[in-house]
Amino acid sequence: MTGGRGRWTATLIAVAVVLGWLIVGGIAGPYSGKLGEVATNDNAAFLPTDAEATRAQNLSAGFVEKETSPALVVYERTSGITPADQQRVQADAARFAQLPGVLGPLPPPIVSQDRQAVQVVVPIDAAEGEQIRQVVHQLRDIAGPDRDGLTVNVAGPAGLLGDLIEVFTAIDGPLLLVTLVVVLIILLIVYRSPVLWIFPLLAAGMSYSLASVFVYYLAKHDVIKLNGQAQGILTVLVFGAGTDYALLLIARYREELHRHHRPWDAMRTAWRGAAPAIIASGATVIVSLLCLLLSSLNSNRALGPVAALGIAATLLVMLTFLPALLVLGGRWAFWPRTPREDRADPRAEHGIWNRIAGFVARRARTVWLVTAVALAALTLGLSQLGATTLGQSDLFTSRTDSVAGQEVIARHYPAGTGSPATIFTTQATAQQVAQVAQGVPGVASVRPLTEQGQAGPPDPNAQPKVVDGRVELQVTLADPPDSDGAERAIRDLREAVHQVPGSDSVVGGFTAINVDTAAASTRDRNVIIPVVLVVIAVILALLLRALLAPVLLIATVVLSFLATLGLCALIFRYLLDFPGVDQSFPLFAFVFLVALGIDYNIFLMSRVREESVKRGTRAGVLGGLAVTGGVITSAGIVLAATFSALAVLPLVVLVELGVAVAVGVLLDTIVVRSLLVPALAYDIGPKIWWPGRLSRTSREGDRAGAEVARAR
């Protein structure tokens, strides 16, 4: 094939690939804005099927015609509720009962003992699902704003759920916009080109659109569950990881343009060199995320395949669409820093990283010892990391209406009013179970559900409702239902009623859901983390054809992870003033930090191995660090910045995850990958590849490593 014909064939192939992807993008694009339609944010639906709270939910279905989620509309006047206030409450309650989705008749308004507050319990049909948000909006519209010293808030499980859905519904636009702006700014700084930034950003957008199609249809047909948290993480993960892969491929392409005349030839060589590392990196993240399928919580299992689909789509696009775009752009895509065919040593363009490589070589043992000790010192901050289930007032970064309402309820009522725990027990033991439950610390009152369907007065003659030989007892807790005190009460309550012979008691309710979720999170952490480490070790062993190197790389990333948690604990407590972290945080932080953190070691060590085959291990370490230093650091900054975009969301859980990933990725790229790993590999030498063939190969490059270092 002549040079001209080959050039035209390559161009036609690139044009066909680009046009094909643009058609796919045109079809897939609209789905990125439709994910909210198939998302569900009902936390109760994510519980394990064998959890006690889940069994209680199933039993409760027999005691009511319809499952409800109560909204608590609370009115407060600190100088005392007036007759006019009571008239307003009665009028509002009558209008509440007429709303679609509200199951009437409503219970009578409850005046607090200090007569400074009135509470209206509004049962909302749980079948409303995401539409509960609309019902809560209507309740707030009817209740109206505060006036003349009377404050009004809508709280309770429905109020909280409405505020959460409101936040998650607003994720798409602001988060996507912030992510795009962050990536654009960083790409402009990295490339200093008015053109080149378009290619990775366009490819990342294509990846997000493609992932959205698969996620949309799988969620629509109930193959996977999508919630607002997974939706937000999908956005930043695709753009962050996609830009990382693009930076690596573009850097290798630029390097090959110095050696090849035709862009097609340069791209072919660059693709062969970069693709194995990109594929290994993507496979590591995908498999690590899929390990979340081992979780007992449906919410965790939802995140795994959603995020894995995002990475798979990103890999496909970045290894096909992006190379075609770059081939069509040719050398001019890099203008004004256009690479020329000059056969220049790729290390010549990396002066700063050459000097860092020389420093690492001269002080290898000191460098890795000092960095390891520094990271170990940061782990001391773990003592400040309080892993608790965040209460309602701690869930949001701002004070929402539901939070304000819960605070009012806590001031004037037993804090568990309106969100009782439930006990399902046999009819024969119901009275004994009620007596035992009443004696549990933290329990304010115990009442049976009567035949009329309301919690009856504490009258021994009241007839409880009996379904299949069981009775439902409603337990009002003294503490707010989302507090540590309420959770302790639920644990004590379960222990007490389970000991009643023949009662077969099952304890459920809002607080019980939190207790079971926390227990499932602990179990998931203990099971999934070891599995992820084993999976990553296998992938690294296959990529590097060694056993020692993978073990050392995983050890450095785990050390970095623990240091990140320690540093984040200090940031959360003393800088952001957060009360603690959710039970799910350590697991999510581990999966993302270890899976993404190992990426940079894969990028570095795959190039080090390539260079080691040519020059020897120690020279290969220095050459690999010099050539990849700039691009991996840029990739780390991009990923850290994109996850930082989660901070725009008013949810503490997502802000904490965004900060943790950003801090951890920066530690990995700047400290672990730049200093600790290369210094350790240089100090160990060829044995790093044990038991592979490279570990038994003695080359001049290894013996000349010291001379190379001094020459830098």
Automatic annotation (TrEMBL):
The SSD domain is annotated at 233-328, 554-682
Question: InterPro entries from the entry?
Answer: MMPL_dom (IPR004869), Mycobact_MmpL (IPR050545), SSD (IPR000731)
Tell me, in one coarse class, where this protein mainly resides.
Answer: membrane
Show the stretches that span the lipid bilayer.
12-31, 167-190, 197-219, 231-253, 274-295, 307-328, 367-387, 527-544, 551-575, 587-608, 620-641, 647-667
Q: How does it sit in the membrane?
A: Multi-pass membrane protein
Keywords linked to the UniProt accession = Cell membrane, Membrane, Transmembrane, Transmembrane helix
| Pfam families in the record | MMPL (PF03176)
Q: Where in the cell is it found?
A: Cell membrane
Q: Look up keyword Transmembrane and say if it applies.
A: yes
Q: What Gene3D superfamilies does the database record attribute to this sequence?
A: Multidrug efflux transporter AcrB transmembrane domain
Family assignment from sequence similarity? Belongs to the resistance-nodulation-cell division (RND) (TC 2.A.6) family. MmpL subfamily.
Q: What is this protein called?
A: MMPL family transporter
Species, as recorded? Micromonospora coerulea
The record lists the lineage as: Bacteria, Bacillati, Actinomycetota, Actinomycetes, Micromonosporales
